[in-house]
What we know:
By secondary structure, the protein is α+β, with helices and mostly antiparallel strands. The chain folds into three domains: 2-294, Distorted Sandwich (Beta-galactosidase, Chain A, domain 5); 312-524, Aldolase class I (TIM Barrel), CATH 3.20.20.70; 628-721, Golgi alpha-mannosidase II (Immunoglobulin-like, Sandwich). The chain has 13 helices and 39 strands. Strands 6, 7, 8, 9, 12, 13, 15, 16, 20 and 21 form a ten-stranded antiparallel beta sheet that branches. Strands 22-23-24-27-28-29-30-31 form an eight-stranded parallel beta barrel, surrounded by five helices. A six-stranded antiparallel beta sheet has the order 32-33-34-39-36-37. Strand 2 and strand 3 form a beta hairpin. Helix 4 packs parallel to helix 5, helix 10 (531-541) runs parallel beside helix 11 and helix 11 packs parallel to helix 12 (591-613). It is globular and about 75 Å long.
Amino acid sequence: MFIRELPEQDGWVLGTEHSLYAIGLGEDGLPVQRYWGPTLPEQDWPRMLGSTTPRWRTSSSRPSEADDEVLAAGGLRWGAVGLQLEFPDGRNELELRFTGSAVERAPDEATLTLTLEDRFSPVAVRLRSRVHSGHDVIERWLELEHGGTPDEHVLVRRLDSANWPLPEQDRYRVSSVHGHWGAENQLVRAELPFGELGFTSRTGTTGHHANPWLMIDDGSAREESGRVWAVTLAWSGSWRMIAQRRPEGGVSVTAGAGHESVTRRLRGGEVVGTPSSYGIVTEGGFGATSRKLHTFSTRRLRPTTGALQPVLYNSWEATEFSVTEGGQMALADRAAAIGAELFVVDDGWFGRRTHDKAGLGDWYPNPEKFPDGLHALVAHVRSRSMKFGLWVEPEMVNRDSDLYAAHPDWVLHFRNLTRRELRNQLVLNFARDDVREWAWGWLSSLVTEYDIDYLKWDMNRPFSQAGWPENTEDPGSLWSGHTEAVYSIMERLRELKPSLLIESCSGGGGRVDLGMMRRVDMFWTSDNTDALDRQSIQHGFSQVYPATTMSNWVTDSPNPLTGRDIPLSYRFHVAMAGTLGIGGNLLEWSDDDLRAAAELTAQYKTIRDAVQFGDLYRLGGESGVDLSAVQYVLEGRVVVLAYEPRRSLGSGRRLFRLAGLDPDAAYVDEQTGDRFSGRWLMVQGIDLWRGADTNPRSGTVRFSRADFCSSLITLDREDGAA
Length: 722
């Protein structure tokens, strides 16, 4: 990685392992992007920095604004706005001028800062761009500083992190995900239309309906071939991304926190920074894009880099609110017997929590369920060689709670308006100092008193009536302040106990993003644990987020949400594609199921290093529909999980061509002892379904003529040539 300043050309070049990002000064003296693509020889840099893309220009259009690094409102710009302020005199435009640059270098990163200043106010804008050693990801964000006195202020109406211009090409195809509760991360690829295509969440969280990332290609990219650009945003509150495609030419993606009408006040002497936006370009299709993002996330963002995730058991689906000390101990015994390493008590352990209408906010063990607190249960769990975890929902409160009775002003609300509940809950305003310190107080005490190993941090409803009557000067700051407070508390908990694991949950997969990735170890992917539905959900999740952060459960059959009956081995094999968890009612599982579960859990432990930290290759057809597979490669270890949800006489047995292997090495199938060259496995392929028909419940089966056929294959590279 490097950053080169070229003052004679008014330019800067940022280099990653395989790409360049070039910035120059445009016709108005402001920074524009000159290039973003694969590495070029240095002899081409002058041409790269001096080139401009010819586009139609008329009296009513300025198409070159698509190349601007900052989409500031005003002047001759009519497209999407990425930066807009409102001054006390009513002015809502900036007249910026470039005033200088600086480069900071460290052993594993380098940062370029370009400073712009408003001609008529003490407002400065700093564009910051960072490259990371060993990665192709470019990080960009923006800082806004008010250099006036404390009695001066401006209203920030829009403050995006970055605008990412894309090179000219004949076609543009955009990849994104959509969804809802129980069906998150549904991948879609479609032609990018002319105009502005917006993706957003107005819920106060990342949201179920979209996720803050886009990929763009020319329509020809495939899983393992073609040039792909990806843009992501590391923010866990409301957000917005707009892909602009101008008829005169020019495409860009602008990304930032907040949504329309959300404002915040910036006073003299204050500096506000945006969340980071990350961009990457690859030549290896969607698969290479995912792998590079996964590697960057696990090595640069995730707080517990390199640590394997434990196999957990969660008691929610077994008990729901009917939590008792004895019942949890009985489940812990069964969980330990099948190989769980972490036992988690979900909702129902605290306050007057016997149903979902009471107790949220009162975070002490229910005295009827746990007469002596949680100490006996924690000791019992640890005596079974498991860690102990709890479900919490710090950001929510029930009306029927001691907390709400004492502090009704702590929730988001407007005076005199109805406080509208969802799931019988109201949202606490974490932007308030008193709410934030209350949450830190009981969370830190809970972790300390019981030496908690894991917290499942849930947030089950979006914002509504997002008012803060006591804050008359800057009520809109609650949107960002809430998210920043959640970040802060999570970071303080990690300082208190560095080994603490935190899982992010939000009504399923409603708060999954690279901002939360910095603070948590894993994400609850969806409340829908049906193994068939989970395949498409996990496929969409894997486009950006690594398997080690994807929490997957094996639950009862028929599935409690869909009613679908799926064999135990298939349920396990789908859940093995990330961080394995078990969430069924083990007290009602048969002895055969418990034995099979123990075998399958033991199998997972032999492959989880490759699954959680290996390179992911998505093979075959559409996940959850056709014959498909996910393959992981970690050094010389190869793991393949294959799925065929429906058998048909119209489709015969197929060979699967593997990927990412050493063509000149030999690979040995652990189950059969068969020896293959890497070239054979990638060119000819392997029969995933060979072997005799056996009981699919055992987990060692290779082929079943019934629906829901699945297989686990492991291969090891031999030393020496094939």
